[in-house]
Design a protein that fits this description.
By secondary structure, the protein is α/β, with parallel strands linked by helices. 34% of the residues lie in helices and 21% in strands.
Amino acid sequence: MTHFEFTIPVLVIGGGACGAVAALAARTAGADVLLIEQDARPAGTTAMSQGLMCAAGTAQQAALGIEDSADILYADIIAKTQGQTDPVIARAIADHSGPTLDWLTRDIGYPFELDTGFRAAYGHSRQRMHGWPAHGGHDMVQLLHQKLADHGVDVLFGARLVDIISTRAGHIDGVVVERPDGVRETIGCGALVLASGGFAANHAMVSQHMPEAATAKHNGHEGNRGDGIWLGAGLGAAVADMGSYQGYAMLADPHGITVPPGVLVEGGFLVNNRGERFVNEIADIAGMVHPVMMQPGGTAWVVFDAAIEARTAYTLEVRQLQDTGAIRVAANMAALAAITGGDPLTLAATLAAADAAAASRAPDTEGRDWGDDHPPRWPLHLVKVCGGIYHTQGGLQIDGNARVLFGDGSGFANLFAGGGAARGVSGPSYWGYLPAMGLGSAITLGRIAGAAAAAAAAAGTP
């Protein structure tokens, strides 16, 4: 029989947004909670994100007269994934995203606001991006951990999950964690929440499950090795959608700063080093990564103008691009060719074709419908970008209560998962990803998992 150094009702693995929200949900449900984070300070994939969460039917949307609902979000998820996602998980996220965001804002004190500068695009039929104005994912993690302290949640830093202890089928007894010096500790629990991240930093797993992304630059936390996924699978848990991930085509090279999608939605476009456009920039936010990786040198240029930059300058990322000098300016065709290395005649033809398509209100050669927008005007602003993989979306199969399931559909009594450790709602590959669904599902499933874990621990406590 395993000797545990101590036992806690609810144990949460992972200190990112999902884990922090799970811990808060369990604590506010009345459970004593311990959160374990492998790093010396809170960060993870959340800290590298834009800090945006998509949620439907929120108080912020209603206040601005935006009609949205769980049913509309669910329909958007099903449409974007071509019906190839788990409808139970999709329904849970659609139903609970709005209430979760309102709970975080009203009861926890997280300052979510609707990002009205982010148009409904890339599969979202409504404006539903919520964030903390002028702040990103790093600030999100820091504030959530402050809220953990305010609610009396203990956090153990510098401890990596290395084993899950189960002496009865379908029941978790505790975990083994390892300190940086190699010392191991055993901790018992009434219920366990795995919010330990995905596997984008595990090159072997990426190569196995998503070989087309194996050469993409990883723009995520290096601790995302899939520990929770393979440990859960080792206990018999089912996994699904392991080929699903968020790719992104606009990672500033070499600065490593994300160029926000609004730069394209507001009228920017992409050209390769020859000066050619090669993709419909407003069709698929995640799918563009592969066309960019296929261009000469694996890089491209985002082309926009001062007006587009001004409209997107409220974002933290654009200000970072400005501060680091990543944005280049070309006053004429010769300067543009010198910056991009493209042929001036090719560049001139590319610009003329985009202008003609926008003026005619007909789709251009890449299939882009410009609508009321127009291509960038001189002087042109440019950022060199490459494709990256940000986070994975496949993982442990869960039900609508975030309970981890076996392959036969039965569930563990007290094991729950969310965030990168759980199956998301992006379908089997990259093309089903909706903007901000990474944090949207992580935070929503975090609350669901935390509340369910608290109930399981209470029911199983002697």
